[in-house]
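TODO from last week: model Transglutaminase domain-containing protein.
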Amino acid sequence: MRRYPRRRYPQRRFTYRCARRSWMRAVVLALAGLCLVAGAWALLEGVIWPEATGERVSSDGSLTMDYSHADEGYVMARATSSKRLKLRVTKGDTTLTYDLNGEGDYEVFPLQLGDGKYSWTLYENVSGNSYAQAGAMSFSVELVDENAAFLCPNQYVNFTPESEVVALAAELCGGLESDAEKFAAVREYIQENYLYDYIKAVTTAPGQMPDITGCMESRMGICQDLAALAAAMLRSQGVPVEFVIGYAGNVYHAWTVVRLESGDVLYDPTVDVNGIAAGAAYTTERFY
């Protein structure tokens, strides 16, 4: 706050000037606040923030799904159980399996396989590695935008409007207009500020999800952390990005595909931070 030099005034005049300054300061602060709010919403324009609005909901067994915004590239699913749960989605010849928390809270699942009929099956752990069906349903999807699923958060690219990664992306991309410019800014930032975590690479348990927050705190991460970080930053700026899992050569790996107007760009943050040229062939197993 600006400090004004203190002067000698008659008591009435001094009181008047202080009151006027207080009023002016209040107006300036209010205007600044409005500008910040407007600016924040502008920076988040084009991003899809999932919500379960209850307009279209189906339940079967232990599974409840809110598909009110399926046309925007996502659905919400929940179940309550003390046992481990798996949610399997099938569309055509493709089947994907997710973990689902049993706390009854909605989780986001992308409709990254495009238009068509999706079938969902919930499985509950019985013993060991054995699961029994605990619910199932199907519904058809027609997306408003083929990129919709790659503009919102999910289990693999997990962020909220309040996440630090969103604020950082807004700072890096402030004033930039094109998706290509935003991509270049994010790519340069990650390349210059992050390292590959070789220790985590050999100690991480199978099935562990990407950790964007931990990656930001340590400025280090394994392939899936770096890929999720890049995807979250770009998605929060309205740039559609696929989070991809598959193989680089014969190494199990994670990377991204950035969907620009000029065409799709394979972007591997791990290659960038290690300062090496990409030489291996990439084979996609699944993407989110």
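Done. Residues 65 and 77 are 4 Å apart (CA to CA).
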